[in-house]
Every structure is written in structure tokens, then in C-alpha cells.
Amino acid sequence: IEVEDFDLVVFGASGDLAHRKLLPALYHRDADGQMPEKARIICSARRDYTHDDFRDYAEKALKEHVKDLDDAHLKQFLARLYYVKIDIATAKGFEDLKTILEERPEVIRAFYLAVGPDLFGTISENLGRIGVVNSNSRVVMEKPIGKDGTSAKALNDTVGAVFAEDQIFRIDHYLGKETVQNLMALRFANALFEPLWNAAHIDHVQITVAESLGTGGRAGYYDTAGALRDMVQNHILQLLCLVAMEPPESMNADSVRDEKLKVLKALSPIDAQSADRLTVRGQYRAGASAGGAVPGYLEELGNNESRTETFVALKAEIANWRWAGVPFYLRTGKRLAQRVSEIVVQFQPIPHSIFDVEAGTITANRLIIRLQPDEGVQMQVMIKDPGPGGMRLRQVPLDMSFAEAFKVRNPDAYERLIMDVIRGNQTLFMRRDEVDAAWAWIDPILAAWAASKEAPKGYTAGTWGPSASIALVERDGRTWSEDD
Ligand code: BG6
């Protein structure tokens, strides 16, 4: 369905995000007929480009990142692109942006800040100063939103001085992933799960976001962030919220965000006393990945002093009636054995066996939601092994693979999210108080680590992280899912 007519301004248009994600996502939405005929995408950066130079640049990006690029659609899309040179530091060029925007005062205006967070404030102030922000405007902020609670507040304050909260779209691209949205469908469009979705029936939950790549060309940024800020504060806590929240009243943005906020507030604090027991930090050393030998993080960075973690495992607990006593084991890292993101919901064992089988034969049910790759849902159940040999039991997966079930292309998260910005739908975006609550839980962990004399534990690239991560779950008599 076509969205309302709009002008989308992309700051940082020559950057990596625009190149790899935003331009391809916009192309697909256009090719699928979702963009009104006159909609424009106004790209801005510091380079001295003409409109046509930028179109050439965009064409190259699309050729690199879009499979099955179609010539007619490509032409139509490139014609929507405009370029304005803006130097954010000196504020030169904002007037030119104003001239372009004022050609169409009546359409939706969205400003996408695909730049570092240090520029969010300056851009917003300038947009306010030149008078292009109206009631039909929205702004999109990319993570990281600050590096702790205090800086997040300052950042939200400056942007909030120009845009109202319902005009601010804080992107967490995990929320736009098809499989993550499917988590809500699974929980709330089926009667089967909800009665069992609590401490009485669930033993524990594991959330793993493992990457096989290293920090790539982003070591400079990454070293100031680390895995806890880069992945846990946002993506992983958002996943935890979707698994743990109470059923919202509706899919209305505030209903969903109110419930997520309650989960974040109910997280038991981890402080200097408990950090050693509940958290594990790691940093990769040289090793091997699918492509062959790879250097360690410190070599890549060219700095032997860095204590930045490239891996983190945590035991989180949610102190409320539904989840009391159910650990949520969270884990993420770079250069791990495999690229896999999944949520594992481990149910309790059956209370009593009527079968004459060896101990341990009957394994407890497990629901695995695979976010990527091989997106799908798997329920592990016990069945009778077919054949006349008596009641032999076996665990089998009831499997649903998105690729097999649906022959359609799996759209990238950004496609859905950018269109939601135009529609003004904030359900899949983070509200300010959620960001604050997430930092409130993360900050004491960062403080405990900063105060600790210990460096992150080394792990060999291509493995599942430091052995302390295995010990974290084994201490509780459990194992990470890949070890089962
Ligand atoms: C980003 C992080 O937010 O998410 C990156 O900054 C990470 O470090 C990326 O690689 C992972 O996203 P995806 O969609 O590839 O799982």
C-alpha cells in the first residue's frame, strides 16, 4: 500500500549505513510500489556532489547490495534522489536544504540522522533554526543513543528541544527483523504458549546473538563502545523485552512500549558485588574463521592496551511474578564460531515419567526461535520411535522454516522501519524512557567493569567465547544450546 507523499532527508548519505542498508531498503520499497509518485529522497553529505554525481554513487551502491536489480525500477528510483552538500560543523548548506524542502511544504518531512551521535544535536538545532520542522516532521535517530545514561539524556534533550517525543523515531533495527516481529505473532496470536509462559513452566531462556565477523572497518567506533553498549543495551534487551513482557492491550505504540518498559524496570540490578558472578567479558585473540586465519582484536585495532570487550555473557533476572527465579542468559560476541541469532525457551521437565526408559531419555520441551540465518521456529518434542520394538522415545523437532514456508523475499529490517517512520507508527521504535531504563541497568555493569582490575578474558577467534561463559551456565546446572 502506498504511503503518504513525503520528502525524506538523509544526513550521512555517503556513509556506510546509507550505502549498505538505507539506499537498498528504499529501492525495494519503491520497486514494490510503496512510494508515491512525487516522493523525494534528499541526500546530504559533505562531498561536492551534483544530483547526478550522487545518483551515480547510489547506483553503484545498489548494484553492490541489491540482488535482481531491475533497470526500470532503478531508473525510477534514481530519479527520486537529490543531493545537498551540507557541512554540519560549520552549518553551511542548511539554507539550500530549506530551499528544496520549501518547494513542497505540505508533504511529510522525515529527517534521517545516519551520522554519529555527536552530530544529532547540531543537526536538530540547525533544522530548528532554519524553520523546516513542522507538525508533519519526524526525525530518525540511529544507535548508539549515548554511551551511558547521562550522555543519552543530554542527547535526547537536545533533539527533544526541536522535535516532540512522538516525532522522534529511535531505531533499533532488530525490531524491524521479520523474525523478531514474528515473536509477537507467536506469543499473542496463539493460545498455546501464553498459559505456559511463566516461571511455573519455563526453566530458563537463552538469547544469543553471535557474529562470525570481527569489528571490520569499524574498530575505531567499536573500541569506544564494546559489546555491552553496541549490542546488549539495545538489541538484546529489546529481544528480552519482547519475550518477557505482559500482553500489551493492543499493537498501539504506547501499549507495547509501556509493557517493555516494565520489563526493563524489573531487571534485577547487577552491581560491583555481583558483576563477577553474573557477567563475563571476553576479547578475541587470533584464530580461524570460515575464511581462514584471522588476527586478534588488539592486532586489528593496533593498540595493545584496549580492554574493550568483544564478547559478553550475562545472567539476567526479572524480578516480577511471571519470571521470578527464571534466568535469562544473554550472550553476544564478534568472531564466534558461527553467525547465529536465536532465542531458546527451555521448558521445565515433565513432573513424572510413566515410561520405562533410561534416565535422561525424556528431555524437556524447548522452543527455539531462530532470528538469523535460516529464520524459523522449532519446537522440540518427544515422540515414540516408530517400529515394533516397544516404547522407545525420541526427541524430534517440529520445524517451521520461513524460507520453505514462504517463497517471498525476506525484507530487510530497514524497509519496514523507514516506511513506519513515514506512516508515523512508533510501535517498533524505542521510547525515551525505554532507552533511559536500559541504560539504568547497563551503567552499573559498566562501572563494575571499569573498577575491576581484571581485563576481559581472551578467547580464540572462531570459538564460542571464553570458557567462563560456559561456566556461567554450568554453575546453574545448564548448558548453552549448541552444547546439547
Ligand atoms: C549493529 C552493531 O547495531 O548490529 C554491529 O553496531 C552489529 O556491531 C550489527 O554487527 C548486527 O546486525 P545484524 O542485523 O547483522 O544482526
Automatic annotation (TrEMBL):
Annotated InterPro entries: G6P_DH (IPR001282), G6P_DH_AS (IPR019796), G6P_DH_C (IPR022675), G6P_DH_NAD-bd (IPR022674), NAD(P)-bd_dom_sf (IPR036291)
EC category: oxidoreductase
Residues in Glucose-6-phosphate dehydrogenase C-terminal domain copies: 184-480
Pfam families linked to this entry: G6PD_C, G6PD_N
Keywords: Carbohydrate metabolism, Glucose metabolism, NADP, Oxidoreductase
Reaction catalysed by this enzyme: D-glucose 6-phosphate + NADP(+) = 6-phospho-D-glucono-1,5-lactone + NADPH + H(+)
Domain called Glucose-6-phosphate dehydrogenase NAD-binding: residue spans: 9-182
Residues at the active site: H235
Binding site for NADP(+): R46, D87, I88, K143
Family annotation (SUPFAM superfamilies): Glyceraldehyde-3-phosphate dehydrogenase-like, C-terminal domain (SSF55347), NAD(P)-binding Rossmann-fold domains (SSF51735)
Family membership: Belongs to the glucose-6-phosphate dehydrogenase family.
EC number(s) on file: 1.1.1.49
Purpose of the protein: Catalyzes the oxidation of glucose 6-phosphate to 6-phosphogluconolactone.
Keyword Oxidoreductase appears in the UniProt entry: yes
PANTHER family according to UniProt: GLUCOSE-6-PHOSPHATE 1-DEHYDROGENASE, GLUCOSE-6-PHOSPHATE 1-DEHYDROGENASE G6PD
Residues binding substrate, per UniProt: H173, K177, E211, D230, K334
Known pathway: Carbohydrate degradation; pentose phosphate pathway; D-ribulose 5-phosphate from D-glucose 6-phosphate (oxidative stage): step 1/3
Keyword Oxidoreductase: yes
Name this protein carries in UniProt: Glucose-6-phosphate 1-dehydrogenase
